[in-house]
Amino acid sequence: MELLTTQRHEQVKVRKHGVSRRGFLHTVSTGALAAGTLSLRDVMSLQAAELRKQGKSMILLWMGGGPSQFETFDPKPNHANGGETKAISTSVSGIQIAQGWEKTAAVMNDLAIIRSMTNKEGSHPRATYQMHTGYIPSGSVKHPSLAASIAKEISDPEFDLPAVVSVGQTQGAGFLGVQYEPFMVQDPSRMPQNVATGVPTNRYSRRLGLLDRLEDEFADRGGDVVVKNHRDLYGKTSKMVLSSELKAFDISDEPTSMKEMYGDSNFGRGCLLARRLVEAGTTFVEVSSRGQGGNWDTHDNLYERVGNLTSSIDPATAGLITDLKDRGLLENTLVVWMGEFGRTPRINPRGGRDHYPRVFNAAMAGCGIKGGQVIGSSTADGTAVADDPVTANDLFCTICKSLDVDPRHENMSPLGRPMKIVDGGAPVEKLFG
Question: Phi and psi at residue 23, in whole multiples of 5°?
């Protein structure tokens, strides 16, 4: 068993690490370009293909509802605005986070906290859209999620599993199309619904052939665009259903000790599934948090609800980082913990905190991010950013740099307008050491 596990890890490393090949390709292709044997387009195509072979990936831990910075990574125990929440020490001297995050505190060497996130959107739908796409909602265009944009740039189009998987609801691929739409998983403890054909493979293939013939007739009568989109969807789905890689969705064969490390919760199982998927080759996985207290929209009963949430999210977050590191995956997997905004410094009469985008926090680990540090700070009362403000676009540019994606790459919208992956902002260089 140990030998098989070791072999599996070595296979993953081979699949996930391709940087040296890229350097070699760059040298060869540049020389070929100079010699006139390759066109610029040929070189760009080769480099894009090589980028997809690097196997970089991202796991987004989405704290839907807006997590309180005071009760997560920026406690204020010495100020009235800090409320009842105490600060605890971490594995890094001088860095403290809120009580309830003891397991996350133990992996602080691998985690970087941003305490100076700032934004203007205080509405859940608008802020959620922006923190997934980098754009404010617009009636004229449906922007692709950052997940879809990243997958378009670095995912392997020949990979059998979806490039983007979401445990829970998320933003879609917008105008990038069905190829980069997220595959939704509602219950990570079970195999996805409707993946079993129930019939032999050859019979299933014959049924797909019959469907193709029926669609040919519809396409001939003017429905070619609809048929193309439908075939793209069915082709992608059928490829996954018939693939041996589908077993990555089955967490039942994980050791009991591994499941216990992530925690007995839907979020914990989602994080365990995320590790399995990036290990298999999926480019982007989002895991949305929900606990017994619902989501992070804690307008009332703050401490009980936060306690219920952290009891599942803390062990899962720490377990994911630990597991990725133990398997040699953390160096090529970016983990981002964030929500759409923060919570008000003052506790309201209902014992909760309201929406507050002016200052909040996020956290990152892996894929070139230097752990054991805090970026920026808030004022002593937590009402504003004190130094090193980080906008949503700054964060997105940082994510792109970590994954070797050009944030200024343009995709053409249906309106004929080129749109950058990230329009504005700059990487937070301090995060990289």
Answer: -60, -40
Which among 128, 160, 166 has a CA at the least distance from the CA of 147?
Answer: 166
For 183, phi and psi rounded to 5 degrees? -85, 120
> Cα separation of 179 and 133, whole Å?
17
Burial 75-91 (b: 16+ CB within 10 A, else e): bbeeeebbbebebbebe
What is the C-alpha separation between 109 and 72, in angstroms, rounded? 17
Q: Is 328 exposed, middle or buried (0-12, 13-18, 19+ CB in 10 A)?
A: middle
Contact 98, 137 (CB under 8 A): no
Do 295 and 75 meet the contact criterion of CB atoms below 8 Å apart? no
22-46: per-residue pLDDT in tens? 444 445 455 555 556 566 555 544 5
Q: Cα(290)–Cα(306) distance, rounded to whole angstroms?
A: 11
- Tell me which of 3.40.50.720, 3.40.720.10, 3.40.190.170, 3.40.50.2300 is the CATH number of domain 56-191+250-432: 3.40.720.10
Lowest mean pLDDT among 209-213, 319-323, 355-359: 209-213
| Whole-angstrom distance, CA of residue 182 vs CA of residue 170 | 8
Sign of CA dihedral 67, 69, 71, 74: positive
DSSP helix/strand/coil, 338: strand
Name the 3-class secondary structure at 258: helix
Tokens standing for residue 5: 């596990």
- Condensed to tens digits (0 to 9), the pLDDT of residues 119-140 reads 999 999 999 999 999 999 988 8
Cα Rg of the chain, angstroms:
23
Domain ranges within the chain, ordered by starting residue: 56-191+250-432, 198-241
CA 157 distance to own-chain centroid: 19
